[in-house]
Amino acid sequence: MPELSLALIVSAATLVAVIVLIFIVVSMTRHQVSHPESLARVLEEKHMGMIRDLNAGLNNLGDRLSAAQNELFERLRNTITQELTQTRSTVGALQVRQVEELSATRETTTLKLADLSANLQLKHDQLRNEVLTRILQTLAEQNRAEQELIQTTMRNASAQLSASMDLLSKTTDSRLEQISGKVSERLEEGFKKTNETFVSVIARLATIDEAQKKIDGLTTNVVSLQELLGDKRSRGAFGEVQLENLVRNILPEIAYEFQYTFRSSGARADCVLKLPAPTGMVAVDAKFPLENYRRMFEAGLPELERAAAQRQFRADVKKHVEDIAAKYIIAGETSDGAVMFVPAEGVFAEIHAYHSEVVDYAMQRRVWIVSPTTLMAVLNTARAVMKDVATREQVHIIKDELGKLGKDFQRFDARMKKLADHIRLAHHDAEEVRVSSDKITRRFSQIERVELDQPDQIRSLEQALLDTAHEDEAGHEEPRS
């Protein structure tokens, strides 16, 4: 506005000067022909007057312009002051309005945030339900696959184990049948031999009965049992018969031989036991030192004679021990020991009870003194040893079957380890799902604790949550693939 007024004033002054100049030129043109000198003078005077007028006009114009400018500045300052006052009022009102609008916006934002939180919670629940549903479906499928694998593995293992057990059972049954057949054969042979022995004993008893009848009939030739046993040959035959009966009743036929003659020495033993290695052949010889034994117990015998009979009894037993050790312990042909069979329990008890030095001497010479009772124990031990050897011969078959069964169990163990690996992977997937759920829950907690003032922040947060959910889904799909 002031600039426009100043321009109008300057234009008006310029227009006036131009008009005056034109008027002077026209006047000079009119008087140029008649009065050239006066014209020049007049022109000069006019020119000077015009200059003075122009200077005065310009001075006046400058004063007016200065006054107008001052007035304009004053008006402008007043206007600006008014405008500033109005602007301040407007700004204050605007600030109040903005505060009100911000309060309304905050309330609106809070409501929108609550709605967004509810929507996000709903979406989170839906997403979590979907993820859990997928995980449960995946776990169910994996469980079904693992159960099928377990069932298949168990069926295969059960089938293999059943086959192995059937084979082992068949093998065992076969071996048991063979063993039972052999035992039955041995028992039949033993019963047969026992029957034969009984028949022989009965026949001999019949012979003895006949002899007894004849003895009873011959009153002049009555002989007591003492007189019968007084003969060394009779005592030897008695011991041999008793030894033979005991051996035949306990051991199988292949495990013994009577009246065996050794190849190296030519000596003949009453019986030899053929035991498995490393024992080998054991000689058994019957000895019956009865004469001095009976003298020790005769009534009315003086003590000196009784002591002499005891010394002679010890000497007899030692001589029998020495003879057996010398004849029947042969290096490379027999074992390193032999057996001395005493057919009377009383004589055996006397030796072990009152003549320990004789027993020690026999042990040093590797000769074992036995009675009918202790011989039965020795024979039963020998039978157990032979049975154990026969069993050991079949051990390699059982060992092979156990080795096959062990391999089957190793395969079963490897498959169980694979199954454990599958279960561990499923547990790992479930743990990752739990971690993702914890992350989403923490982010919702952060949303509930933070107040957002701008919708852009709400949208960016919602987008970040969706991106996180997609990343979690992608992360769960990668381990399963």
List keywords for this structure.
481 residues, five-stranded mixed sheet
Structure description:
The structure is a single chain. The protein is mainly α. Among the domains are: 2-97; 232-393. It is 81% helix and 6% strand. The chain has eleven helices and five strands, in the order H-H-H-H-E-E-E-H-H-E-H-H-E-H-H-H. The chain has helices at residues 2-30, 36-217, 225-229, 232-250, 291-296, 303-328, 345-354, 356-364, 372-393, 395-449, 455-480; strands at 256-261, 268-274, 281-286, 338-341, 367-370. A five-stranded mixed β-sheet has the order 1-2-3-4-5, sandwiched between helices. A hairpin with a 6-residue loop joins strand 1 (256-261) and strand 2 (268-274). Helix 2 packs antiparallel against helix 4 (232-250), helix 2 (36-217) runs parallel beside helix 11 (455-480) and helix 4 (232-250) runs parallel beside helix 9 (372-393). It is rod-shaped, with a radius of gyration of 72 Å. Mean pLDDT is 76; it is low at 219-225.
In brief:
This protein has 481 residues and is mainly alpha-helical. The protein contains 11 helices and 5 strands.
Residue windows where pLDDT falls under 50 for at least 5 positions: 219-225
Radius of gyration: 72 Å
The overall average pLDDT, rounded, is 76
Q: Assembly state here?
A: single chain
Q: In angstroms, what separates the terminal alpha carbons?
A: 80 Å
Reading the helices and strands in chain order gives HHHHEEEHHEHHEHHH
Strand order, sheet with most strands: 1-2-3-4-5
Largest sheet: 5 strands, mixed
Shape: rod-shaped
Number of strands: 5
Helical percentage: over 70%
With helices defined by DSSP (H or I, 4 residues minimum), what is the helix count?
11
Strand content: 5-15%
